[in-house]
Amino acid sequence: MLLDLLFYTFIVVVCIQVVFHIIFFAKFAFLKPQKRAQKNIAVSVIICAKNEAENLKCFLPSVISQNYPDFEIILINDASYDESLDVMEYFANKHHNIKIVNVENIEAFWGNKKYALTLGIKASKNDFLLFTDADCKPLSKYWIQQVTSHFSNNKSIILGYGCYSKIKNSFVNKLIRFETLITAIHYFSFAKIGIPYMGVGRNLAYKKDIFFNAKGFMNHMNILSGDDDLFVNQVATNKNTAICISKNSFTESTPKASFKSWFKQKRRHVSTANYYKLKHKFLLSLIYGSNFLFWILTITLLILQFNQLIVLLLFFLRLIIQYIIIGMSSKKLNEVDLLFLLPFLDFFLMIVQLSIFINNLITKPNHWK
After folding, report:
1. 241-243 and 157-159 strand pairing
2. Cα–Cα distance, 100 to 8 (Å, whole number)
3. What gap in Å lies between CA 360 and CA 356, rounded to an integer?
């Protein structure tokens, strides 16, 4: 009786997974990007840095050298205790379009990136804002051009892709990049079907009036993370949100060097999902929950040798569909090398997500740096 219940539950879980891949994720996987005309609108590129002196030296030149006629760079020094401010001042002395916002710690907002970002946004002079991180670099000199080309009278929020650099012979690096790829497939797909729910601060743009009309981050200022995904979750609609997936629009970040540091970072990021809108939490819970049950039930039923042939057929059906959808998506996002380890990465990511969920129930993650 129990085995029958597990088996029928497995069938339902496979159906849920297949539906998500075919109806939701295929929307992005088979999307054909269209070339868009350059807008040449005035843009403020906003970079918030906390103890990022070396990264600023390395990556800021790729932002400064963007092929775009009218942009300023707002560098926010968020109470750094390294040489970040000195590095900012060095570049500002050489480039007239750089403005520095020096933020000092105050007790009410200690360790809160949103406070520093708010001051940076207020200091910007342009109506269109483009965000990235201090450890990010645009992968082409047309980054600003490509992202801003998606702004229009209706589209005031642009979701971009921020990948991580590749490290040879590193399974942790592949796991980090796979998680980033899957997350991107999710938020791009949901945006395309009219249910935008998040973006990443490594590559995100929106109009300034969107920020002030929403009273900035005030609705979630007390939550340590979420300057990107919680804000998008709050203000994005099926009408005001666009995605930008041209390869010239990507940014690349330096990934965490160890599993421990990445796990700590993901704990902080995942903690914000508790504050998403109810419909988003339900759909995401269904995706991750069904993926967890898919692996657990597959292994359980095969070990117990219950209806093995049907279980294997359903397992490979889901795997083939997953390969097609993730394969098409990975081509768009330049992550094709991950396909060779797809089942293993999917399984290990499920274990990581379960561990993060359990850890976040026990203790709260720390501030952003």
Report:
1. parallel
2. 60
3. 6
Tell me the pLDDT tens digit for each residue of 312-342.
999 999 999 999 999 999 999 999 999 999 9
Return contacts of 84-87, CB within 8 angstroms, 24+ apart. Answer: 84/49, 84/50, 84/51, 84/52, 84/53, 84/56, 84/134, 86/53, 87/53, 87/56, 87/57, 87/60
Phi, psi of 131 (to 5 degrees): -110, 140
Q: In what order do the strands lie in the sheet with 162-164?
A: 136-138, 251-253, 162-164
Tell if the pTM clears 0.85, that is, is over it.
yes
Q: Which among 93, 59, 10 is positioned nearest to 162, based on CA atoms? A: 59
Q: How far is CA 338 from CA 75, 120, 173, 330, in A?
A: 34, 37, 10, 8
**Residue 348 three-state SS:** helix
Q: Which amino acid is at 3?
A: L
Instruction: Indicate if the alpha-carbon torsion angle 136, 142, 145, 150 is positive or negative.
Output: negative
